[in-house]
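Supplementary Note 3. Input sequence used for the single-chain structure prediction.
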Amino acid sequence: MKILVDAYGGDNAPLEIIKGAVQYVQEGGTAEVCLVGLESEIRKIMDENGYSYKNIEIKNATEVVTCHESPTEAIRKKPDSSLCVGFAALRSGEYDAMLSAGSTGAVLTGAVLKVGRIKGVNRPALCSLLPTVKEGKEVIYLDCGANADTKPINMVQFALMADIYAKKVKGIKEPKIALLSNGAEDEKGNELILKVHPVLRNLEGINFVGNIEGRDILSGDYDIVVTEGFAGNAALKAIEGTAKAVLTIMKDNIKKSFLSIIGAMFMKKTFKNMKKTLDYNTRGGAIFLGANGVMVKAHGSSKAQTIVAGIKLCEEACKANIKEEIAERLAKDDVKSLIFD
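The predicted structure, written as discrete structure tokens, is reproduced below.
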């Protein structure tokens, strides 16, 4: 298995990206990692840090796409960027997956324009794994920002793709699929939700359990939560902001009282476990379901640990052959016959 890693994507590139790739190999990772970027600089960092080249390949790229550029313009005007060189290599079929912590817009735009979509997929979706209140359980959440304007057929396909991901990669036999709405009742929702709900309810082969509210996303009672990209991204950012605010408020209030400080000392392990549960670094990133190749988008501030997890996420998806599974599912008559206004 060969996995491409954008060495110049993210706030901590290229050092932390290179470090993560090497760490993945050192920890027993079996895939071959190809670092894409300025070869001379990558080799210099490798040599200065005494990193081994075992299972590490380097593919030269002379340009870098930044988060301050227009995604479409950057992809068009920088064909020799680490992203575009990586996209071309993935599309060629020589490599199995690609990981980048670079500009989200550029990664998504390039994946569609340069790599393409799986046959039958109208629009790919960005799929995140979020922690829940149930220890050790995650929820598959999509679309979390790839599509600002979503049609009913897109959301139905999101549900089907996530169902395959849950079964094949996460090993969940009958994943519970919920639809994010403004109420749990079947009749709740905007025009989009009201069109999607009955289709998911009657679609064979999936375990659709109905609507849920935003407060239920992290309950642990559901395996998949489906939404459209605009609301999905807004809700995700709200969740991240709330978690950060709660931790900050808790920390500030502990400092105000001597007894609270003493109590916090006894709860040090609890706080550490809580922080670990909420840490995005342990999840590697969000997988771009529906692209014609395994694509994982890591957080922009990713460090080595996140890159290791991201490569492993790529590896899992490749082993499960989800691209072929998605194409096969969407080719079935019950999906092909779906007609929306």
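The two ends are 42 Å apart (CA to CA). The longest helix spans residues 229-255.
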